[in-house]
Protein 1
Amino acid sequence: MTVCSLTNQFDATVSQLEQLADEVYRVRLECPPLAQAILPGQFLMLRMPQRNDPLLGRPFALYDTVGDPKQPTALDIGFHVVGKMTSLMETLQPGEQLEVWGPLGNGFPELETTHLLQVAGGIGYTPFVAVSREALLQKTYGTPARSGIRAERGTLIYGVKSARFAARMDDLADLSGKLDIEVCTEDGSTGYEGLVTGPLRRRLAERGNEPTTVLTCGPLVMMRVVAEICREFGVPCLVSLETPMACGFGACFSCVVPVVTGPDEWDYQRSCMEGPIFEAERIHWEQMMGKK
Ligand SMILES: Cc1cc2nc3c(=O)[nH]c(=O)nc-3n(C[C@H](O)[C@H](O)[C@H](O)COP(=O)(O)OP(=O)(O)OC[C@H]3O[C@@H](n4cnc5c(N)ncnc54)[C@H](O)[C@@H]3O)c2cc1C
Ligand code: FES
């Protein structure tokens, strides 16, 4: 276990802000060194310079890199307006400078499967843009480029409360024919009416012998149920946790989560260093939910 790693801090310049749905935005940050190093499932911490409120940085997952994949110059993050930092981000203008540090966290491991089934709740869909491009289009990430995730086909089951919160999916147009996107809304205003777990069960029941791997990101209660369903169907599942974080690089222990370390044993691990991606089976869900 690395005790604490000092990470790279950069000034990033905002070059674009696009609204994708009610309260959901994508912001483009010009920052070549970070864009060239970050991997799908990793994240960065973001702070507003010259502001003490909010004092702490906030974590945001890589949405995707921008430019020549071998030498990207920018990266996108997607965000949902929920509090102080994201309310300020909603008003960002091209040319504004932000403090960022990263890349952080372990990212999704390299893996091969036939069907990559991604289950997202709300803003938890953002890591799956880069993941899908890596797995289905062989887009490369990192310097030197890693071999990455490989799959023959992909599904994104994307749940939101209502249609107005469903992010536009035109960013994923280049994946058409390879990525099947199923939107679920709790109020039935578009797509499947109900929770993501309905389509997940259906697709796992229909999979036959097709090797399938599930990745999930979103609210904790959703990920717990996704993990239970995967266990029931005997399908491997990786979770991307969105545990609140203060430093992002291993120093403060604000982000610890209970992880199974052996038969009847568990211990806390830092989501920012040992995670945020964990095998679902390794999370001690009872302890985790009790803590929240
Ligand atoms: C690894 C990682 C990747 C993330 N990626 C993204 C991303 O790509 N896009 C995105 O929009 N958000 C992402 N998040 C969550 C984001 O960092 C928080 O929502 C952040 O706190 C927002 O800052 P804020 O100042 O606007 O809200 P705050 O003022 O910090 O919080 C507003 C409200 O949200 C609650 N809250 C804050 N953080 C969390 C959390 N992690 N889980 C549940 N409730 C929380 C607070 O208790 C408070 O009630 C990620 C978190 C992690 C750990
Ligand atoms: S956020 Fe500080 S140790 Fe993880």
Note: DSSP finds six helices and 16 strands in the chain.
Protein 2
Amino acid sequence: MEIINVDVLVCGGGMSGMACASFAAEAGARTLVIEKQGEIGGSSNYSAGMFWAPQTYEKLRNWVPQGDPILQKAFLDDYLPVVQFMRASGVPIAKRFDGIMTIGIGFPIEISSLHKLHRKRIESSRTSSEILINTSVVKLIQEEAGVAGSPITGAIICKKSPGFPAVYCEIKAKIVVLATGGFQGSPDLVSRYLGQGGNKIFVRSNRGSVGDGLKLALEVGGGTSRGMNSYYGHLLAAPLQSEDVNPRDYLPLAQYPTESKHCLLVNEAGRRFADESMGDEIINQYLARQENRRGFLIFSEKVRLQHCVTALFPNAGDVDRLQKAKEHGCNVGTASTLKGLLDILHEWGVDRVQAGRTIEEYDRVVRLGDRDLACDASIGAGGSVPAPLVENEGPFHAMEVQPSITFTYGGISIDSKGHALTADCARIPGLLVAGVDAGGFSNVGYAGGLALAFVTGLWAAREIALQLGLPQPVLPPANVRDGEDLPIEALL
Ligand SMILES: Cc1cc2nc3c(=O)[nH]c(=O)nc-3n(C[C@H](O)[C@H](O)[C@H](O)COP(=O)(O)OP(=O)(O)OC[C@H]3O[C@@H](n4cnc5c(N)ncnc54)[C@H](O)[C@@H]3O)c2cc1C
């Protein structure tokens, strides 16, 4: 077997892996990025490019109290300097948006430009660093094979080319970084950690993230984080199977928070089961526990016009969402009266009588506008107050929705330097983790996606520089700290 010597092996060329490799190579580490698929970028290629983070630590703690506070704080400390770095490096960044994912601020970025920048920094560095595509990391090598927590000294990789036998190669590396993007695509792992039926949830992710990082870490004694049973995703038009949808359609088929926040959501039994205003990244997880995982959004024409035909922000899928769902053969119905809409729901298998009662009761509470009553009925706790349905004129609309997993919140246990930890919280020498593979930041509530991946990739690069005695990555100082509402013009 051929042996290649490098300083750093990065497993996964997505958002976190590319960020890590870009800073590590720039610092002077000979870095090899291994990417399983035919192109780098992972899920970020299908993303809306909203580089967001919670506005303040306090907001984050209130929204995601079950996440790890030390990791969360460390993430926010690096968020704005990273935005500043991209801007200073010429990555196109749009103006700041507020209220992202209820608690956040965000900057839409051009993902392809960011990866171009990373690639250039990796491939033109003086260290002969490189990126190999269509190649997977299949096994970690330890100093003492099979001894939990024994130092990592490299990995076995496997290159597959159509029509040729697979080629295996040993990489000897001083440091290995796991950045494979989570375990949402592994039916076994989602069944184990998310519970029965976890493997039936629509996978809304790049197709390469199938839990390799987690499996590799577990094999060498890695521990798991908090929140192993929770995940990020959106309500998606239904019925649809993951394998039948082109990933480029993930965005327009998702019923984004603003829209679903203004709808009434019932299950097959015709009952509400969650406060819609919490945002669909949260109620998505509740829907997964309902009978047959079937949900039905009910809304007025006013809501459709305000929220279903425009994008939330640039790149977020500027399409008529009902039309898009119809084109995919999903259940979408329109009626001039609520009675007519109940008939449609009945045809889809929803309990018509109970759905009618639910609409009536929901509407009564919303119309009264009584906060205590609304609170008892779990309406509007997420901040947005829905409009009463019956006071609006028809037509009325209904859409069947299903839960989806974009990425898993739980993963390998890490510290705030990016070290992989054992179940006893001891560092595994030579093993770092970044991006979705690193668990514990989010838990039921969503703490971050693209930005979190970039920041944890940066942590790994800092640790690499420290361990190899190289200069630390330098970021321009941020003009805005912790999301304080200072003049943003300085940043833009
Ligand atoms: C439709 C969609 C929209 C999104 N929109 C947003 C948004 O607007 N804002 C936001 O913050 N987040 C968004 N996200 C989430 C964001 O894309 C992810 O949080 C981010 O990409 C995670 O980075 P990562 O490096 O952990 O994983 P990824 O970027 O997914 O990269 C992981 C890479 O590892 C590779 N890999 C897996 N196993 C191996 C192996 N054994 N060997 C080698 N390579 C391997 C995979 O092929 C993949 O390329 C969105 C995601 C999707 C799918």
Note: The chain has two domains: 2-225+407-490, 234-402.
